Every structure is written in C-alpha cells, then in structure tokens.
Amino acid sequence: MEKTYRGIVASPGIHIGRIVSFRKIDYISLVPDSCRVQDTAKEIDRLNEAFSKVMEDISRLIDSAPESDKLLIESEKLMLESMISEARHLIESHGVCAEQAVKRIYEKYREEFSRSGSDLIEARIVDLKDLASRIIEKLMKHAAGEEEIYRDSIVFADEVAPHDFLDMVRRGVKGLVTRRGGVTSHVAILARSYGIPYIILSDEPTADLDKRSKEAIIDAVNGVVITDPGGNTLDKYRKIAMETARMLEMFKESSRVEAYTIDNVRVVVQCNMGSLDEVRVMHEYGCDGIGLFRMEFMYVDRERPPSEDEIYSLLTKIAELSQGKEVVIRAPDIGADKPVKFIGPIKDPNPQLGVRGIRLLYRYREELLEPFLKAFIRASRRGNLRLMIPMVSTLDEVLDFLDLYRSMLAAYTGSRDESRVPEIGIMVETPSSAVMIDALLDNAPIGFVSIGTNDLTQYMLAADRTNPELQYLYNDLDPSVLRVVRNVSRASRSRGVEVKICGELAGRSRAIPILLSLGITELSVSPAYVGKVKYIVRRLKIGEIRDRIESLVTNASSYRDIEKAIDEVIGSKELLLLD
Question: Which distant-in-sequence residues (6+ apart) come within 8 Å of 441 by Cβ?
C-alpha cells in the first residue's frame, strides 16, 4: 500500500528504485569487557597491521573523492592516527588487548565530545565510532558482511558512515534514506558532491519501512519518500525523473545569484530553518537570509525548559553563522502538534484551536516567555536579528507582548529607547489577524508582517492539514486563501510595512507569479527550494501579468481555476511537475 513520509532534504534529486537495507555490524559492542595479553609488543604489531589496512582504505577513498571533499576525508586520518597512538600507549601500560584499547579510547573521546556543548563536535561522534569499529573489524578478521546489490537502489539505514557511503556509491547506489544524520554531516556533503538524493526521516524507524516495502521513490526536491508507489504515482515520477537532474543543475546555478524578474523587480528569497545544522549550510543553498527560524527544537523532548543562557548561546551562534544577513527569530510556537515534556499534555478538545503559540507563552510567562525575551535582547546586539510573534489573534495580544518586551528592554539597557533594537513582527496565520490587519498595523508599532500560509489555509478552509481524510479540501491556492493574502499585502504595503510569506505556498511554482503580482517580493522557503524559486523569478515579467493575476484572484471560484490559469502563465511543464 502506497505511503508517503516527509523528511529533511540533505541532498536534492529524485530516484525510483528497489529498497536495500543497510545494517552495519557494531564491532565495538563485540569486544569483551575483559581482555588482557602477555606479549604487548605482538599486540601492538596486530594493532599497527589493522591501522595500516584502514589507512589504505581511507587513501583509496581520497583518490576517488571529488577535490572539494578530499580535505574532509583527510581529517579522518588525523583522528585515526590520534586514536591509534593512544591505543598503543594503553596496551603498553595496562596490558589490554588491541580491541579493548581501541574501544576504551573511543569511549573516552565519545564522552568528551558529548560534553563539549558543540553540536558540530558532537556530530563527529559518528565518524569516530566508524573508525573505531573498522579497526576492531580488522583485528577480529571479520568479513565486511554479506554483499548487497546496490546498483540503482535506494538504501534505507539508521545511519551511514562516510566510508560505507562511498563504497555504496562505487557499487551504484542512487538514493539514501536514514533515520539519523544532519545536513552538514560528512555523508550529506558527499551525497551532494556525487548528486545522490538523500533524505533524513528523523521521526520514522527506517528498519520498519524497509521490512514492509520493496520499492520506493525518493523525492529529495519536495522532501518526501513514497514506499510501494501505485501506478499513477510511478507514472508521474517516471515523467519527471529524467528531467530532474538537468533542472536541479539549473536551480543550483540560479541559487548563487540575486533574483530579479525580467522587468527588474528584486525578490528576496530567504530560508525557513529550525536548527544550527541548517544555518551552517544557508550560504551553500543561496539563502538571502533566514525569514523564519523555528525555536521549537530547543523545547521538545526536554525535562525542563531551556535557560536564558542556553537560548542566548544559540541565538549568538545563529547571528555569527548568518554573517550579517537578516535572521527572523520566531518566539517558540509550541503546543498543539508540538507538545513539550516539561509542560505535559494539555487537554484541548481541539489542539489546533487551543493553547498554542503566543497563548501558551502567556500561560507560562515566567518559565518560557521571559527567559526567551531576555536572551533575545542580549543576542540582538550580536547580529541582524529580528523577532516575530506567532499565532496572533487579537490586538491585545500584540500590545501585551510589546509592553513586556519594552519592560525587559528597560531592565537590560536601563532605557526604553527602541531606536536601536530589532523590529517586532507578527505572524498572520489566523483569520482574525488577517481580517483585522488594518487595526493591528494602525494601533501597534509592528515592523513587519509574515504570512504563515500553512495554518492560515487550514483555518480558512476548516481543514486540519495533518488529517489525510481532508487533503482534498486543504489547498493553499484556494481563492479564499489568496484573497486574504492579497488584502494583507495591500494593507501592509499601503502603510510602508514590509510583508513576506513564510509558508509552503512561497515555494510552490504556481504560487510565485501570484505572490509577486500581489506585491509580495520577500519569500521564505525550505533551503532545498531556493534555487527553484530564484529560477522561476528570473523568468517572469511581472508588469505583463500583474493585472491578469489580480483579476484571477478576484474572480476565480476554485483552486482549479487558479492552477489552469497559472499553468498558462508559467508555460513550463517541467517546473510544474516539480511543484
């Protein structure tokens, strides 16, 4: 039965293929707790022999790797040399076997890396474990395991080490799906270098997926994995798979330059992000800034809320990594489908209409909102940070937030002078904030407006976007949604207030000419969509289509009318298939 899973794109591309399971043996776990030797010199010889073999493997990888990745793999040599040097000393001084020595050194560094507080250093634990496991494998003289037929396949795994990935590439793998990993991991960088589509399904047990399914589609353009695809889905992807590589190369070229329409309208294409891992690669993707940074990852799966200093540390790292580009920090939008352990379950009959976003922050003002605001005010002087209020419904919510912000500002700076502090913006994602946008802008010093079309669409159409039974209703190209977007844009621009889109609508091919025609020239999208968006922008002449689009939004009676008209405007079926 066909099923779709959403994940994080680590390397773009599309492929249809057989599923191959990858189960790496954890040789470290096979080392006995006690293992002593009498002849330490002989044991060091064993260790040196295993070391030489692994170094040979790494050298072969360097020879076959792209020039840009050679330095990355060279770093493994340094890590391995350090580990082996300490293991030799341990054998000499304590008389342990080579396997036990390598395991102890690995465990020592694992503990040190874990305590470092640096997510970048912690990410190297995977590489460290792989090196230790490979040395122990050589010492135990185990075979590498049963050969798998990788040609044209999609590998499903919990995690994959760089050495294993490069071996898969050599044997013809065409796609990778893992449960653990990151967009800045060695494997992700290598996947992008080799053009291998790679998606991280952090919320899905890949072992279960590949046991149940035989074939899959990896769509690392839109961030989905489809297992056991049906005939219609296969037909659709077969039509676009051959064109995807060519299109992605053009998108990559477009991502490197600023986006101007044919008639010289500048469009800022920023990125939606939710981790430091993503921020580190924002420049690689061509992001003009960060239009939405989600703070939620700091709050979920924790026994207590993050401290002011923890939040401050994160925000200053973001400011540093963004290199002066604008970063919009959204106050924690938790609750509903993003529950947190330290609060516990909130008994809402309808969570999407319950205590979430700014409502939850007000309920837990001392525990959540005040530490966040204090940290933001401190960090705002370290970079180009702006602050955004989520889930706004009424003017009073905005005024209360601004009043608390001013109080925090006065306590920190000794002045309520806001002339040198970041602007405060609001998310427009509820019907009430959209309808009352004039009153909000006229009665509160709002610096910018960001339309969150994901929630706005579900509230406008009364269709939960997470409910598969209602997907036939949920469509952000519905005229009711577009008319609200138009009205918010008009109200904001007429008052000189910046307006942008940060929902999925901003990354849809059909939506881009509409949004630009409605005067919205700041779009914030998933990093994987930046090249596509800029590519489309550079092929539009807004002056020629603006009146037609305005009339279409006013008069269309269904999303089908919108899609049909926009297909004619774009005229590129390739782009539309990638939507």
Answer: 449, 491, 492, 495, 497
